[in-house]
Specification:
Helix content: under 10%
Largest sheet: 15 strands, mixed
Number of helices: 2
Number of strands: 15
Strand content: over 45%
Shape: globular
Radius of gyration: 17 Å
Structural class: mainly beta
Distance between the termini: 30 Å
Strand order of the largest sheet: 8-7-6-5-4-3-2-1-15-14-13-12-11-10-9
């Protein structure tokens, strides 16, 4: 599937959320991530959601830009993925597609090509340790009882089993302003515990990874 085709599909859908995250380690901003979430007809003909996000790490050299476009079905099962990695050391493209009981990931670079099939659990998400808007689909699966979710991390071609739980409303801050938001945790992966904060409309407002001293907070107006 070409990038132009995917962009045409996204443009045909209804935008339900868009914004920019400031990504910080401690107090130092290391990247900004812009994203757009759309609802509509997917490339395979089914209804669902499309998330296009781009994060640019430009505070150090080399500059790295990660740009996945993920489609999920109406039941939030990942359907297709096109992921461009702009890294001067090894630019690459990652393609993913849902099959019968599995999600197939192909990793394409100048000097190699790899593929792996991942078995699916009842609840499966595509995540990345350096792209944060993707966590919104995991947040949608959370309930007050801790539950298991299968996470596919395509850039590292690995699969993790995580626990996800909705802890209800809690007080926090977003860009130093007080806020009362829905608090969700995703735990058990390499990042240990990821804290997600959603507003009443289900929009991801903030993400925190204490083990990495990292936060991603939505900028005002987004």
């Amino acid at each position: 599937m070409t990038t132009l085709l995917i962009l045409a599909i996204l443009q045909a859908g209804t935008t339900v959320d868009e914004g920019v995250f400031a990504v910080r380690v401690d107090t130092l901003e290391v990247a900004r991530e812009s994203f757009r979430l759309s609802n509509g007809r997917l490339s395979r003909g089914d209804a669902g959601w499309s998330l296009a996000t781009t994060i640019r790490y430009d505070r150090a050299r080399p500059v790295i830009v990660l740009a996945p476009i993920l489609e999920v079905n109406s039941d939030t099962m990942p359907a297709t993925l096109q992921y461009d990695v702009a890294d001067p050391r090894q630019p690459s493209r990652i393609l993913g597609e849902l099959g019968r009981g599995r999600f197939t990931v192909r990793f394409l670079a100048r000097t190699m090509e790899r593929a792996r099939e991942f078995s699916l659990g009842p609840r499966t998400v595509v995540l990345d340790d350096s792209v944060f808007a993707l966590y919104v689909f995991a947040a949608w699966m959370a309930s007050s009882e801790a539950g298991e979710v299968t996470a596919i991390l395509p850039r590292s071609l690995r699969r993790e089993t995580m626990q996800i739980q909705d802890h209800g409303l809690a007080t926090t801050t977003v860009n130093h302003d007080p806020a009362r938001l829905r608090h969700i945790t995703v735990s058990g992966g390499a990042a240990e515990t990821v804290h997600l904060w959603l507003d009443p409309a289900g929009r991801l407002m903030k993400l925190e990874i204490p083990s990495r001293r990292l936060s991603a907070e939505r900028l005002a107006g987004g």
